[in-house]
Amino acid sequence: MNALEILEQVNRSGGHLWAEGETLKYKIPEEACSDDLISAMREHKPELMQVLIDGQPAPCIDQSGDLIIPFNSTARYHWWLEGSLSIKEIRGELKQNLIL
């Protein structure tokens, strides 16, 4: 089983996976959460994390100069959550990484 097959199986079961920092989080119905699935998720964690992170929209600065932070972006950009980056830090990171 590869990362995409794992995601498909989790989605079919009504569950979902998401990346929170370096942690792979999941919510899967108990009847669908087999030892084999958990083992496959552990084995393919790097690939799963990459797929999940690549699928998350990143913050950007629009043409008018406003900072846009999508709600479904990585939690580190949610400035209202404790432990996340401040708006100033997000702007600095965007400029530094040229994610404009």
Keywords:
single chain; 100 residues; alpha+beta; Arc Repressor Mutant, subunit A; two-stranded antiparallel ribbon; two-stranded antiparallel sheet; 40% helix; elongated
User: Could you name the CATH class of the largest domain?
Assistant: Mainly Alpha
Structural class: alpha+beta
Order of helices and strands: HEEHHEEH
Mean pLDDT: 82
Number of domains: 2
Largest sheet: 2 strands, antiparallel
Helix content: 40-55%
Q: How much of the polypeptide forms β-strand, as a percent range?
A: 5-15%
Strands, count: 4
| Poorly predicted tracts of residues | none
Continuous helix count? 4
At CATH level 3, the topology of the largest domain is Arc Repressor Mutant, subunit A
Query: Main sheet: which strands, in order across?
Result: 1-2
Q: What general outline do the C-alpha atoms trace?
A: elongated
Beginning-to-end CA distance, first to last residue:
37 Å
Taking all Cα atoms into account, the compactness measure Rg is: 16 Å
Annotated CATH architecture of the largest domain: Orthogonal Bundle
Summarize this, please?
The chain is of the alpha+beta class. It has helices at 3-12, 35-43, 45-54, 87-97, and strands at residues 16-20, 23-27, 60-61, 67-68. A hairpin with a 2-residue loop joins strand 1 (16-20) and strand 2.
Model description:
This protein is an alpha+beta fold. The protein folds into 2 domains: 3-54, Arc Repressor Mutant, subunit A, CATH 1.10.10; 60-97, no CATH class. Helix content is 40%, strand content 14%. It has helices at residues 3-12, 35-43, 45-54, 87-97; strands at residues 16-20, 23-27, 60-61, 67-68. It has a two-stranded antiparallel ribbon. A hairpin with a 2-residue loop joins strand 1 (16-20) and strand 2 (23-27).
